[in-house]
Structure formats: C-alpha cells, structure tokens
Design brief:
Chain B: GO terms for molecular function: 4 iron, 4 sulfur cluster binding; metal ion binding; NADH dehydrogenase (ubiquinone) activity; oxidoreductase activity; quinone binding. The complex is a heterodimer of chains A (552) and B (235). Chain A has 552 residues and is of the alpha+beta class. Chain A has 17 helices and 17 strands. The chains are: A alpha+beta (552), B alpha/beta (235). Bound molecules: iron/sulfur cluster (SF4).
C-alpha cells in the first residue's frame, strides 16, 4: 500500500500560461476568482477540459462544485486543486442557458462529481447530461421546484411520502444466482450517528450494495447564510454545520473566506487565540469520534464512551471559559475574535495546561482500552479499505485521507492562522483501513496538544499593550459586485470550504459550503461493498460523519 | 483487593460463600429491607394508596429514554446521559435503541420535511403512556432555521410535546431540569393533551384533490402514507 506515500512534496508548478495552453480555445473567456484563475467553457466541453487538467496538469482534486442561478443564466463552477499542492487552484466555469440548463456531467472524470451534481440538480435545478444516477439527493423525491433557484416559492405546500423505501418484510428478492435481501438502516438507528438512512442489499451477511440516503437534516444552511449579513449574521451558523464541538474550526472557514473577500488583516494575537481555540475543538471532536466509534464497534456505552465524554467535558469547560458557550461558540469575528482570554489569565492558562498535562496519560488509556485490544484489532484491521487513489477520486480529506496515507492537511499545505509558525506534524497512516483512521485521530489529538501548548506560551509572553484582538472592520461590509472567492480550512473532518459570490450588497448572493463529511460519506460504498454488515457499521463509524454537515 | 500476581490455588471453592452476606447483613435474620418506618407500622406494615397514583410514581421514577439523535442538541443530550451530568441519577437515564421499549422521547434537534414522517412513525411505535421532551429552540419554533424552506416550525407541528426546554442548545443542567419537571408532571398524572396536529400521516388517496396532489398522482399510490406540509399556514 505504498501508492499514496510515494508522492513528491516538490510539486510541479503549473503557470497560468500552461493552463491557458491546456484549456486552449475551449476557453470562451476568463472569469478569474480571488483565489484562482477561472476559465469559462461550453457545457459540452466539461469532461474534456477536466480530464485534461487532471491528466496533464495534475489537478486531481475536485474540491467543490458550485451551482448558481443568475438573472440570465445558470452556472456550474468546478473548483479544482491538487492533493500535492493545495495552493494551486483553477476554476472551470460552465454557463448554461436559463431555458435549457443542461451541462455535461463530470462524474466519469471525478467520482465525487456524482453527488455534487445531484445536489446541484436538487437545489438549483441544473441537469447534468450523462449523469449515472440523476436523482434528488437532499430533498425528498416528491419535492416540487428547486429551492435555490430564483423563481422558487417557499410558501407552496409540499408532500413527503413515508413509503418510498422497499419494505424489508416483503418477500426477499430472488433471482437465478443470488438470494439477496434488502435492509434499511436508519434513519432512526443508533449506529448512524444521527439521521442517516442506508439502503443496503445483503447477500447472506455480506453487503452487496449500500446507498446512503441523506437529507434528513437538510436545514437550508446555504439559504440561511445567503439571508444573513456578512458582518455578524452569518457567523453563528457555521457552529451548527459540524456541531460535534468543531464550532471554532467551522467559524474559521467563514472567517477566512470573508476576510479574503473583504481584504481584512487579522492581528497576530487574535490568530494565536484562534489557533488555540480551533485545536481545542479538534481535540473535543476527535474524542467524540473515538467514543462513538467504540460504541459502534463494541456497543460499549459504559467504558470508552464515557471516557471520551469525560475528556470532552474538560475541553468544553475550557472552551466555555474562553468563549462563553459550551457548544455554539460564536466567538470569531471578522478580523479577530470577540474577546481576549478570560481574566484571571493565569488561571485560564493553568487550567488549560493541566488538561494538556493529563492528556498523554489519557491517550495511553485509550490505547490500552481500544487500539491494543485484540478484539478491536480483529474488528477494524483490514476492514473498510479505501485505497489512496479511490479516496482522492471521491475527494476524501481529513483523517479519512490521512488514514489512507495521503499526506494532505490544509493547515500546512495552504497555511492560515498561526500554524506555519508552530512546530507540529501532519499525521498519516498507510493502512487505508478502519484501524488506521482511528490511529490518525488519536495521534492528531497529541499534535493538537502540541500546538495548544505553543500557543499558550506565546499568549503568556505577549506584551500587554500589544494584545490586539480585532482589526478595524467597518460596520457594514459590501464587497464589490461579482467578486468570487473559494477558500477552505482544515476542519475536524477534513477540508471545509466556502464559496461566496458578492453582488455589491451586504449579503452574499451565493454561499456554497463544501463539506468534508459529504465527500467522505460518498466513498462509503467503496469501503463497505463486499464486507460484512458489522464492518459496514464500523466503516461508517470510522468516517466520523456528522449529519449536520453532510446535509447542511 | 486486586493483585498483580496470579493466584497459586483456589481455596474453598465449593464452600458457599458467605462473606458478602456477612458483611452486608451480619448475624441473625435478614432485615435489610426493614426501615424505621416499617418498625413504626408495627405488625401491619401496609399503606394504602390509589393504584393510579402508585403507578404514576413508578412511571416517573423509571423512565426509559429513546436513543434518538437528530442534530446539535443531541450532543448536549449525550453529555447529559454521560458522566458528570449523569441523568440516570434521577431514575431517567437509560437510553433504549428501540422505540418499542421507550417511554420518553427527547427530540434533540431540527426537524426537516424529510424526517417529519419518520419521526411521527417512531413516535407511533412507542407504547402508551409516552411522553415527549422538546429539546432546544428548533423543536419549539424551528430555531435559527425557522426561515428555511425545508424546516418544520417546531416538533409540535407533528407530535404532542409535554415539556419544552429552550436554548440553542440547552445546557445539560437545563435538560436535567426539564426532565425533572416531566417526572413531576408524570407523578401528578398530567400529560399534554393530544390535540390534532397540523401535519398528520394520511393516505394519499384521502387528500383533497388540489394541484399538487394531481401532479403527483402518477408517482404515488393511493394507499401510500404521506405528510403534507402547508408551509403558508405555519406560524
Ligand atoms: S436548538 Fe440550536 S443547538 Fe439545538 S438543534 Fe437547533 S440549532 Fe442545534
């Protein structure tokens, strides 16, 4: 399993001229974004252009697909980048006419385009020609209209059926060779971590096919953000995407994109606080991932689950001291953070240091209970395999990618905050299985602890009169019309990106969220088909999805 | 007393072990269940109460929660079950994975159109008497997502709710308080009236024939259960 490891960290630079040469005269025009050069191409050239960029320029990561409607046209934007060098980006813009929004599907080039294009069809209403599975994805099959299109009327009644899934009690499906059974897992099921529905086809105990049915928590996050003003009204929502205590990590995604859009410089002191807070969140989030994974694999509600909760409580206490809330922090502001460390400072620092001091012993405890436990190893080792190439094809990021040996972490590859000034390592494991993903999370907890430690040192020594927590940001932000930007940060589950298009008002015209869980979950069939049912559950647990972020 | 050294031999394994018994009961007859009150009753240790009252008391003190996570609030709900807050202390903490074994449903999160019918089904599967705690602003009004095109404006649009715990998310302490209040109500034999909710599961064939129904008629069977959301009528 070395395919993912032999990557060169010296990426081949592709200049804009090279890109122009590759796209050639298929480029109708340029439509540059703040983060990347953009090329406008015709709807029937999509597949060619994308595969050329993938093969000849190494753009192997379809990070996001944004669909939107303008007054006179629909537009799909493919945001491409590279696993080997995250700072190289290019956008492919595909306009389609308003009366005939049909565009070529990119699914044959990037598997991850499959779910993306379903979502674009569902919410915006663009058809993708040649798509392998053109169904709605987030909204029920019987939904009328496309809610993010311009002429959608939200007041219209809607019908939702209860019986659109085959009934498992009906006679099993037999054909000549096989004798399969259909099994619904979820949407109310303890192993699905919320409201996810897996339509599973079994042959004996082996999973033949699994189709994740999502959308049971689609709470219109993008619409909510498009209705909010940049300055203050959007920030509370990111907390609720990945609600497993990853609040500050998500807030950073919005802070980063909006600060780039409005050209705001964040003071260093605030960056250090942000970095510290974000890493505390990462620890809390990984603790829950471990706890629920143990719950999935062992059905263990008493020991490891409670250990995980115990440690989270400590982190949540610290975060509450810092931000004033246990879960929905709303602590970041554009240009900085809401307030300084709580007084008395040394008490806060001492409390956090205590936590860090106890952490190694706790991690050892987890290793004793979990990773060095034979039963656990048998259950997780060599199950839920996802090879690096496949993981890249599905746009997997975060611990899932790093558990397959893909050395990709935005904190290092596309630095933001204070990360590039600190000493820490990106953790990868070559195993590609459920076990590796657990190991990655456990080691990341230790790396995060290192980062927090260094941040605390910095904060303690920071001269008192230079503690600037917020830049000077105007009360109302109105970025210039037609500025577009796509930016991502390393959330707890992977690359969390946001695309914003400004239209000159104080609210975004389009706000698109690139959720890491959405991509990681789309790779589940690759991991679970051919495995036993319990391994399917373990694989699902090891992906560490949170439905708030999958469905948005 | 544990020891790291393996035991060399086993002593008296066939003899009935009385050590625990001795330490707990001591010499003489077993009078563990005797209390001062019982002594006061003397030779006729009976009290009389109404059976219903007794049953309500029992119910309130042994509640089985449905293991049911929807959204952000479920994280705080898990914390309420887990150590530190330990809801079990109040006789109300064992989460059951199956609705058929549960009698309290905490609704921890935002309910969206696709989930509404499923939640109703889960609620219907719980045996009577059953109670519902709405946790968080989302179950009260849709919370921060009230304006969303896909969000049900509160759990009470679909199922009756006994206790609302406000907050986004409510702190575990608040949830504990809400549960304690529910126990109090159960002990007093109160439960929320089952009024007709705006959104019910209906057979498709029974719906009034309007534009939407006619449009979907080719896709949905007459007997299929559907839930119809009249967004314009929602508060
Ligand atoms: S009330 Fe707040 S915390 Fe609870 S589910 Fe709704 S948005 Fe999440």
């Amino acid at each position: 399993m070395s395919t993912g490891l032999e990557r060169d960290r010296v990426p081949v630079e592709v200049t804009e001229d090279d890109l122009e040469a590759i796209v050639g005269d298929r480029a109708l025009a340029r439509d540059d974004h703040l983060n990347a050069p953009g090329f406008v191409v015709r709807p029937d050239d999509v597949r060619d252009v994308l595969s050329d960029l993938k093969e000849r320029a190494g753009f192997d990561h379809l990070s996001n697909l944004t669909a939107q409607q303008y007054e006179d046209r629909y537009e799909s934007i493919y945001h491409l980048t590279k696993y080997a060098d995250r700072t190289q980006e290019v956008s492919i813009v595909v306009p389609t006419p308003i009366d005939d929004p049909v565009s070529e599907s990119a699914a044959p080039v990037f598997s991850t385009a499959d779910w993306h294009e379903r979502e674009a069809f569902d919410l915006v209403g663009i058809d993708y020609e040649g798509h392998p599975d053109p169904r709605r994805i987030l909204l029920p099959e019987t939904w009328q209209g496309h809610p993010l299109s311009k002429d959608y009327d939200q007041e219209k009644p809607q019908l939702v059926t209860l019986t659109d899934h085959a009934n498992p009690i009906q006679p099993d499906h037999h054909d000549a060779e096989s004798d399969t059974m259909f099994l619904n897992i979820g949407p109310h099921h303890p192993a699905t971590h919320g409201v996810l529905h897996l339509e599973t086809v079994l042959d004996g105990e082996t999973v033949v096919d699994v189709d994740p049915d999502i959308g049971y928590l689609h709470r219109c996050e993008e619409q909510m953000c498009q209705n909010g003003t940049y300055r203050h009204q959007i920030m509370p929502y990111p907390d609720r995407w990945d609600y497993v205590s990853a609040g500050l990590l998500n807030e950073w995604a919005y802070a980063r994109v909006a600060e780039d859009l409005a050209d705001i410089e964040v003071p260093d002191y605030a960056q250090v606080i942000r970095t510290m807070g974000a890493e505390l969140c990462r620890i809390a989030s990984h603790m829950l991932a471990l706890a629920t994974f143990a719950l999935d694999v062992y059905g263990d509600f008493t020991a490891i689950f409670q250990y995980g909760m115990r440690d989270r409580e400590v982190v949540q206490d610290i975060l509450e001291d810092l931000t004033g809330q246990r879960l929905m922090f709303n602590y970041f502001r554009l240009g900085g953070v809401a307030w300084d460390l709580p007084e008395p400072r040394d008490e806060f620092v001492a409390k956090t240091r205590d936590f860090l001091d106890e952490l190694p012993a706790k991690v050892d405890e987890y290793h004793d209970l979990l990773t060095s436990n034979e039963i656990f190893q048998v259950r997780t080792h060599d199950t839920g395999i996802i090879e690096p190439d496949v993981a890249k094809d599905y746009g997997c990021t975060g611990p899932v990618a790093r558990g397959s040996g893909i050395d990709y972490d935005l904190r290092r590859d596309d630095p933001y905050g204070y990360y590039d000034e600190l000493e820490w390592d990106v953790v990868t494991e070559p195993g590609c299985d459920n076990y590796s993903r657990v190991l990655v999370r456990m080691q990341e907890v230790e790396e995060s602890a290192k980062i927090i430690e260094q941040c605390l040192d910095l904060l303690e020594d920071w001269p008192e009169d230079e503690r600037e927590i917020q830049a000077n940001v105007p009360r109302t932000l109105k970025p210039d019309a037609d500025t577009e930007v796509y930016r991502a940060v390393e959330g707890a589950k992977g690359e969390l990106g946001i695309y914003i298009r400004a239209d000159g008002t104080d609210k975004p015209a389009r706000f698109k969220i690139r959720s890491p869980c959405f991509h990681n979950l789309s790779a589940l069939p690759e991991m679970a088909n051919g495995e036993y049912v319990p391994d399917l559950i373990a694989s699902l647990g090891s992906l560490d999805i949170v439905l708030g972020e999958v469905d948005r | 007393m544990s020891s790291n050294n393996p035991r060399q031999q086993i002593h008296g394994s066939t003899a009935p072990s009385t050590d625990t018994r001795d330490s707990r009961i001591g010499e003489g007859p077993d009078d563990r269940f005797n209390s001062k009150l019982r002594e006061a009753f003397g030779s006729t240790p009976f009290i009389l109460t109404k059976f219903d009252k007794f049953m309500n008391w029992v119910r309130g003190n042994s509640m089985f929660m449905l293991q049911f996570g929807i959204a952000c609030c479920s994280i705080e709900m898990m914390h309420t079950y887990a150590i530190k807050h330990d809801l079990d202390r109040f006789g109300a903490g064992v989460p059951r994975a199956s609705p058929r074994q549960a009698d309290v449903m905490i609704v921890p999160g935002t309910i969206v159109s696709k989930f509404g019918p499923r939640m109703k089904r889960v609620y219907d599967q719980m045996p009577e008497p059953k109670f519902v705690v709405g946790m968080g602003s989302c179950t009260i009004s849709g919370g921060p997502f009230q304006e969303g095109y896909n969000v049900v404006k509160g759990a009470e649009e679909i199922i009756p709710v006994d206790i609302h715990v406000p907050g986004c998310p409510p702190r575990p302490e608040a949830l504990v308080y809400g549960i304690a209040k529910l126990q109090e109500r159960i002990r007093n034999g109160e439960s929320s009236p089952v009024v007709v909710k705006p959104y019910e599961l209906e057979e498709f064939g029974d719906l009034p024939q309007d534009e939407l129904v006619q449009k979907l008629a080719s896709e949905i069977d007459e007997e299929d259960l559907v839930m119809r959301y009249n967004w314009a009528d929602s508060p």
